[in-house]
Amino acid sequence: MLVVSFSPMDRAMLIACSAVSSSCSAKYRSFGSVMYEYITDQKLRYFAEQLEETDEQVINIALSMGENDTKSISRRFKQLYGCTPVEWRENKRKKES
Description:
By secondary structure, the protein is mainly alpha-helical. The chain has helices at about 10-20, 25-30, 30-55, 60-65, 70-80, 85-95. The longest helix is centred in the middle third of the chain and has 23 residues, at about 30-55.
């Protein structure tokens, strides 16, 4: 199971989505979980972009996104991209050379 830490804005969006979906049919109840996955994917894509485009340390990028646990975001990153954030950055830089 993927565990994500959300910013206050992300949490508010998820609460709003789940409140709407709780009164809807089963088809729409899954919207909250779909939204959760979408937000997670978007956060990880932004994280990957920052790794590629900046020289910021992993912890600084994570903190700027409202992530307080670099182990957690690194684990989720590895699940999605198949390598750690540091390895991903190194591979991208090698390809550019």
